[in-house]
Amino acid sequence: MTLRTALAQGTKLLEDGAIDAPRLTAEVLLAHALRVERVYLIAHAGDELSELGWIHYGRYLHQRLRRVPTQYITNRQEFYGREYHVAPGVLVPRPETELLVEVVLPFITPASTVLDIGTGSGCIAVTLALESTARVFASDISIDALRIARRNGALNTALCDLGSAFPSGSFDIVVSNPPYVPAGDVLAPEVRDNEPAQALFSGADGLDAIRRLIPEAQRLLKPGGVLAFEFGFGQSAAIRALLPTATIMPDLAGIDRVAVLRTS
Ligand SMILES: C[S@@+](CC[C@H](N)C(=O)[O-])C[C@H]1O[C@@H](n2cnc3c(N)ncnc32)[C@H](O)[C@@H]1O
Question: Which of 17, 73, 162, 194 would you label with 212, given CA atoms 20 to 30 Å apart?
């Protein structure tokens, strides 16, 4: 079978299984099976698919049909132009979280100290460290997440509840993409059955972690320090009530997504 035929068959299977973006997904999975970039598939469409390639490709297609996210199959996700290792046990970085990075970067000065609370894959901490000269620290309550964050380059990490491993008044900036999904929310099976609940859910209204994050950040920040965090769809009124002086920023879809506030 040629790569062209394999792609057509994979696309059909995924389409029949109601998987989003079936052609693109088939290309990503076939490229991963052959350990090549997607562009290779175009240039070599008439090549024969090896038996080993077929075995891997078939396995990946069936995983995807069982609703395993593509990123957990390829162990890759791009964030802010760089590639991160991801695996079950850590949230797949979302594109909208790049806004949090954009919001925080202008506040960073050459000697800033930054703490990323709930670092997950480390995507925020690593991006901030690479895009600035700040000293960036990261915490998470999940050892699986921290292992992956370290592998991705988040070096100064602590396994703890919020920022409890760090002394008061240590940071110029506290940044966080905390869990914020309300407990009863209906999620896509990819998310519900695969991503860690600890990274998603946060009490009946989704705001439990944020309610604890605010006083914890105030403890951790130096006077005049900055807290920036992400929150979910429909939560901006609650955030405004919790933090009347915060600036709320919308994401590219126009949905209020990030709160930022300077402490006194
Ligand atoms: C929504 S995920 C964000 C992951 C990553 N920062 C990102 O943006 O992709 C939330 C993260 O917070 C962690 N977390 C949940 N509760 C926590 C707590 N009490 N203290 C520290 N980390 C916590 C989870 O393990 C998870 O890695």
Answer: 194
Beta carbons of 92 and 69 less than 8 angstroms apart: yes
Q: Say whether both 146 and 30 belong to one domain.
A: no
Please indicate, yes or no, whether residues 49 and 108 belong to a single structural domain of this protein: no
- State the pLDDT at residue 154: 83
**C-alpha 162 – ligand 1 centre gap (Å):** 9
* Contact 115 CB / ligand 1 (< 6 Å): no
Does residue 186 share a domain with residue 92?
yes
- Taking 70 as the pLDDT cut, the residues of the chain under it are none
Question: From ligand 1's centre to the CA of 199, what distance in Å?
Answer: 5
- The whole-number pLDDT of residue 155 equals 86
Looking at residue 203, its pLDDT comes to 97
Check whether residue 219 and residue 113 sit in a common domain: yes
**Distance (Å, whole) CA 216 – CA 17:** 45
Test site for ligand 1: of 72, 82, 86, 91, most ligand atoms within 8 A of the Cβ: 91
List all residues 6 or more positions away from 86 whose beta carbon is below 8 Å from its beta carbon: 71, 72, 75, 76, 77, 92, 93, 121, 148
- Ligand 1 in contact with 142 (CB < 6 A)? yes
Would you state the torsion angle of the CA atoms of residues 67, 17, 70, 176, taken in this order, to the nearest 10 degrees?
Answer: -50
Give the number of other Cβ atoms within 10 Å of residue 98's Cβ. Answer: 18
Q: How many domains does the chain have?
A: 2
In ligand 1, the atom with minimum distance to the C-alpha of 94 is: 9
Determine the atom of ligand 1 nearest the C-alpha atom of 162.
20
Domain ranges, residue 39: 3-66
pLDDT, tens only, 43-53: 999 999 999 99
Residues 220 and 146 in one domain: yes
Find out whether the beta carbon of 195 lies less than 6 Å from any atom of ligand 1.
Answer: no
